[in-house]
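Researcher: Sequence recovery benchmark, item below. Answer with residues only.
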């Protein structure tokens, strides 16, 4: 069953540095987004995705044994909502990802048992229509979740379909592929014997951000960045510093469609920060590589 947007409930929220009527401005240091509204005490907010104008954010919510997605709208200097998008105990929904043209909202569900990736499209009225599950090679044996897609149509996601090196790894494939055999597991040093998941691929493929529980991390899970190595692979990932990674759990990285902000989940809340933090990491990464 699918619920479309419902009535808006007005609630108070931080202006996040923006004047009334303006879109919220991403901070220069990571901050919890929408304290008391988008991010609420006592509940687990998972992944998030934001519209290009930064006025709508869709997030995943944990409800014990099931998950749902809800949207919040920035109006008159505060986050208003929520609007229920999708999710029931029988048809769970999580890991929202808004396509570049904002015409599709991707998500994961366990309606068939294992986690599968699907999407919603807008109908003529502008509401989200009934969900559709993706075919192979994206959905395969095992659990598949957290998809992001380049402008060229290359999808990146995490799966435990191989399950011979510690569980989840990151895969890629053409969104229009025809068979499971076309799914490519990213090579080392991106994938390791540790957990690798939640891959965000830059629309132009310039960098990859993902979550991992690899050794020497700061906490249960940390965020890492890797660059193309020029030979069809990826550079050795570097960890985000203590501004992002904590002794707790960081996951669900995603850059807003306008390229201005990095969204991520940290210790059960949605946080965001200006993408200048990514620019700094890329510059440092490139400089260190040039010195080798």
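Model:
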């Amino acid at each position: 069953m699918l619920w479309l947007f419902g009535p808006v409930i007005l609630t108070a929220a931080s202006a996040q540095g923006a004047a009334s009527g303006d879109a919220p401005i991403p901070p220069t240091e990571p901050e919890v987004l929408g304290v008391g509204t988008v991010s609420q005490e006592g509940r687990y907010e998972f992944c998030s995705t934001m519209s290009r104008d930064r006025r709508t954010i869709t997030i995943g919510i944990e409800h014990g044994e099931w998950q749902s997605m809800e949207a919040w709208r920035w109006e008159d200097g505060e986050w208003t909502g929520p609007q229920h998008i999708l999710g029931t105990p029988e048809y769970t929904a999580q890991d929202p990802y808004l396509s570049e043209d904002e015409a599709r909202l991707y998500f994961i569900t366990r309606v068939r048992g294992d986690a599968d990736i699907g999407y919603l499209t807008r109908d003529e009225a502008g509401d989200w229509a009934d969900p559709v599950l993706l075919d192979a090679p994206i959905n395969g044996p095992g659990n598949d979740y957290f998809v992001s897609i380049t402008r060229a149509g290359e999808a990146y996601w995490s799966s435990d379909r191989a399950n011979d090196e510690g569980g989840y790894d990151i895969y890629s494939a053409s969104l229009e592929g025809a068979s499971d055999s076309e799914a490519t597991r990213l090579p080392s040093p991106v994938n390791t014997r540790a957990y690798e998941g939640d891959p965000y691929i830059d629309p132009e493929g310039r960098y990859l951000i993902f979550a991992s529980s690899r050794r020497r991390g700061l906490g249960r899970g940390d965020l890492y960045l890797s660059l193309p190595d020029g030979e069809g692979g990826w550079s050795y990932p570097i960890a985000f510093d203590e501004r992002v990674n904590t002794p707790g759990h960081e996951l669900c990285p995603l850059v807003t469609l306008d390229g201005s902000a990095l969204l991520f989940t940290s210790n059960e809340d949605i946080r965001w920060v200006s993408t200048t933090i990514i620019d700094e990491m890329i510059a440092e990464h490139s400089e260190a590589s040039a010195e080798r």
